[in-house]
Amino acid sequence: MVSKKLYIIIISLVSLLPFTSLNADNNFLLLSDSAQISLLTNSPWNKEVYAMFGHTVIRVNDPSNKIDLAFNYGTFDFNSPNFLWRFVTGETDYKLAIYDMFLYLREYNYRGVEVREQVLNLNQNEKQKIWEALLINAKPENETYRYNFLYNNCATRPRDIIEQNIDGTINYTPTNKSQTYRNLIHECVKSEPWLRFGIDLVIGGDADKIITDRQKDFLPQYLNNAYHGATIEGKDNETRSLVKSERILLNKNNVNFEEHSTNSPLIIGYILLLITMAISYYFYKKNKIILGKIFSTLIFITAGLFGSIIFFLMFFSEHPCVYPNWNLVWLHPLHLIIGSLFFVKPLTKYIYYYHFINFVALLLFLLAWVLIPQQLESAFIPYILIIGVCSGMNVLAVRRMGEQNSFLFAK
């Protein structure tokens, strides 16, 4: 029996084949008077991270010309050269793909997601202009674009191409809410606390600035809401509704998202903190030098690896809202370097100073928690304390022994 993922891949590939000739030249087919252009909004799908934020496509339906196509700006190729590296650096390229509507709905029905349609209230000239603009975008030389999760994605592209080809100005329905990028991302990943934890580690203070309604359109559901009740103000000051009709093409039949509180990072963090405190105290009292070295090395190398990721994203990637990031105070590459030197005896004195400075820095960071210009997860606190406990216990051990070494470092 064909697996779900293989089935979806096959459907996606087959659906592209019949329409590769639509953009072969500029002799565009004239749409009939009965043609309709719609905005389709897919509900989130919790089986893949990239699908948890929903999806948007443009539908062109012209029964007279036997056309019913979905224009999808959300496709990418895992097999493209250096895909993983480009993904990490934020240089991912996405493509516009054309799908047969029947197969498109069949795929999403298989996934069990809801698909909503908003038929746009357009005149014939506007329909034709959008149709031609989509076909021009679908040309091989134009189909690829530099994807940006917040600023240039599968939702903002359809919005922009519709705006650019309408005879007038669109007045969108306001949200009447003060929200940030982080607020909106949290809405989408609330069912996955570990994913939220990871995202909050790598996005910085810029994600906590109040954003405009237009900036919220990076999420398909918010674009859908903005279209509902929106109007077009023409050059002659006449006003008409942007959306002519709305309906649900597919009903949602997948499992509802649920929060997995029993596996939350906060609970796991405090369990690990208690274990760290017990182990550190035992090594301190029993003077277990080698075991203490190994345990502390694991803690700091792990923290250093995560810190290296944050450092790289801040200074060497094109990802949005990753700079500045105050998490670099407690997770940074220096932990990785110092952690690998715990067994080097001549550096014992300097490592002691490092532990002292690190302990003080973490203490000040926690005391200034509410003053830091970035929304920090409360789930970070036990992990910060784990690093602090390792440094603090080492400092106490050195002072107790009255010399520049400790149970963590052999003489």
Task: Give an overview of the whole structure.
The protein is of the alpha+beta class and 411 residues long. Helices cover 44% and strands 14% of the residues. The N and C termini lie far apart (64 Å).
Quickly list its features.
411 residues; alpha+beta; 2 domains; 7-stranded antiparallel sheet; 3-stranded antiparallel sheet; 14% strand; elongated; disordered C terminus
Short summary:
The protein is an alpha+beta fold.
Strand share of the residues?
5-15%
Largest sheet: 7 strands, antiparallel
Order of strands in the sheet with the most strands? Answer: 6-4-3-2-1-5-10
Our Rg estimate from Cα atoms comes to 27 Å
Number of helices: 13
The 3D shape can be described as elongated
Order of secondary-structure elements: HEEEHEHEHEHEHHHEEEHHHHH
Low-confidence stretches: 6-21, 404-411
Overall number of structural domains: 2
User: What is the residue-averaged pLDDT?
Assistant: 88
**Termini gap:** 64 Å
Q: Could you give the count of β-strands?
A: 10
Please state the structural category. alpha+beta
Helix amount? 40-55%
Topology:
Layout: H1 4-16, E1 36-42, E2 55-62, E3 67-75, H2 83-89, E4 93-100, H3 101-111, E5 115-120, H4 124-137, E6 144-146, H5 156-164, E7 169-171, H6 181-189, H7 193-202, H8 220-227, E8 231-233, E9 239-241, E10 243-250, H9 265-286, H10 289-316, H11 333-339, H12 348-367, H13 380-401
